[in-house]
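Hi, here's the filled form for the chain we discussed.

Project: internal
Contact: R.S.
Residues: 405
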Amino acid sequence: MINKDRLRERLLELAQIGGNATDGWTRLAFTKEDKLARGLVKGYMREMGLKITCDNAGNIIGSYGNPTNSPVIAMGSHIDTVPNGGMFDGALGVISALEVAQTIIENKLNVNYPLEVIIFANEEGSRFNNGLTGSRAICGSFSQEELQIEDNNGISFYQAVQEMDLNPDKVYEARAFENKYKHFLEIHIEQGIELEKEHKRIGLVNSAAGQVVLKCTIFGRPDHAGAIKMTQRKDALVEASKLITEIQQISLKMGGHFVATVGKLNVFPNSINTVPGNVEFFIDIRDISSDKLNRGIEVISNTISNISGEFSYFLEEVENELPAFFSSRLLDLGKEICEKKNYPYKVLSSGACHDAQVMTTITDSALFFIPSINGLSHCPEENVHWEDVFLGAEFLLEMVLNASE
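And the returned structure, exactly as it came back:
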């Protein structure tokens, strides 16, 4: 019953903001591009007749029905991206949720609970290295200290929130009142290759990996690239490279779901003709087992502590999200719908973090995937089949209707 043309057109319209298929999309949280995208989706909400609120964490919430005496069924995702990311990451979940809500409203379908579509702020965390802030604010786990984190241009999270005409001193007011939500549902692209490999069209996610991000700074000595002999150097980048290689080997030995990635480095003074004096790099560590995650962190930390005596270092934790397990009741409901509708499905875990993972701390939460072509994501080549987009929205609609019974 969903309007496929409308769903496609809105996804393509959102994709006009912040990038293109050649260079990728860059809509970092609380930037001009993000603000334009937020305005667009609020326009969709007004068109649908939703009541729109925006809390001081930056979350946009569109409401249908009266939640005063009844818990809410919520859907949503995010519209911010990583630098040069893909078109569907997050956006798919937002536009699909809006389409499901509009289909229910237009067709006067029976839903026994009020509905919300939530567009979570700063899910990716690419600008400030602190992701999932919108959902964490709703769940009460956002810390005031995070407001002082600065981006690469020296703009603090506090300032960025102010620039969105919000009050960062009242972020805590975003916290949902107790038992507000009956369910939270999120649909997303898989960002992996399991569904495509096994010719499945719906992924029912039973768990999501925990994520810890460590920031490591190596202190060497900046020298002239031509005047100082190789044997006399304290090149911080060379030392950091050795450690990064070791981290790769540790991850391979840990095996299973354990992964560790170094995807961001800052080199100082970052000059062609200067030996790198200091290097800071970020280690993204994930596993679906808390014990294995902690064990891997310990091994990596010990490896860094054995750094050459010529160098000093500083290691700090900048992000910590625990592994999550999604609602078994909603998972079983998803299986029933897939079997009834003959949707090929697979139960799997998620190596990526999502807002639905945070929402497990306050309500029954469920996460669903549609296949990613070649498993590509967080890059311009990220893509999906439109028929999977439509089927995913139809599945989400069935989940909402059945979960409200």
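Let me know if anything looks off before we file it.
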